[in-house]
Design brief:
By secondary structure, the protein is mostly helical. It has one domain. The chain is built from 21 helices and no strands. Helix 8 crosses helix 20. The longest helix is centred in the middle third of the chain and has 34 residues.
Amino acid sequence: MTVSIFLGALLGPMALGVPIAFALIISGVALMMYLDMFDAQIVAQNVLNGADSFPLMAVPFFLLAGEVMNTGGLSRRIVDLAMAMVGHVRGGLGFVAIFAACVLSSLSGSAVADAAALGALLFPMMKKSGHDPARTGGLLASASIIGPIIPPSIGFILFGVVGGVSITKLFLAGIFPGLMIAAALCVTWLIVARKEQFALPAKQSGAVRLKALIDSIWALMLPVIIIVGLKFGVFTPTEAGVVAAVYSLFVSMVIYRELPPARLFHVFVAAAKITSVVMFLVACAAVSAWLITVADVPGELAALVEPLMDNQTLLLLAIMVLIVVVGTAMDMTPTILIMTPVLMPIIKQAGIDPVYFGVLFIINNAIGLITPPVGTVLNVICGVSKLSMEELMKGVMPFLIAELIVLFLLILFPQLVTVPVSWFGH
């Protein structure tokens, strides 16, 4: 009964068009009234406490770094480097997109920011070369979701805060799975693009390649600084966000000089707007998360999945299928905030490593960004490319299947996540 009231109070307002943040508060209040413990002061305290978290301070800094990266020339130089290195090979522009997505993901941690940068920089170029527009848009959208997987990742930060899991371990655990997804996209691109007729860019000389590498070296140094700093304990994930923001500002304004002081205000405002949405969602989710614990919703769900508790693989498959379904109707941030407090007690009871589960959970949520109707990344690419959602979905499908296969392999072979963590970890 408790689960039904929670879901009804959450999904009902959402179906009527109520913003998700307010629907989260409504669901929490509904549970309080059902438990006969309604107190407005408790609601207010949980909202304030929800946003009062030191690790969450990393979110605005990484979002600011993403805005600066796109405005200050870091994104463009990464794409230019990839173009110079592999743009001339058959299907090279697709590999450029995948390579650029991996590097950009290690700068911003946001799939939406990466999609905006890749779409604006590469879609016109690939379309002009003769690539199928729908397939091109599908590749760019699918490559963009590497952003929340390879560190730094805003998704990992939110999951770590809500689930009480080490953000540093999550960051390091996401490196190899992110590269696996990139490799799967490369193989898929080779298959789907082999019959296309398109013009190949001219092969660049060694001098041009060296110049592109030198121009991009400042941008390439940022992920190295972050990963090395986290591995050796130089700074925490929150401090890494500050380092990323300050470093990108310094490079954009002093080294590349593409971000004039007059534009700083607009960059800060854009980052603040996105931050306010994310943080308000986090604050409101704290109300429902507290009530979920008090009402023992995880206990009720654990009773439902009790037949699967002895088989970790089947349990994870069932949870991942559930998240795929939820991801088609809900964006990544609210899914993390709603599902994490419900699922984590079950995961711990089943003896599953929370870091391993966190990687699977975030990959699944990232895939949800390219599934209609809510898929945020799809909407970004639609806006940039002027493609309809139907056209873009046809182009996305082969890459979506490849990413789901990678997720399935990670469920079957946990060592693909746990062993690399021992390489990168402390």
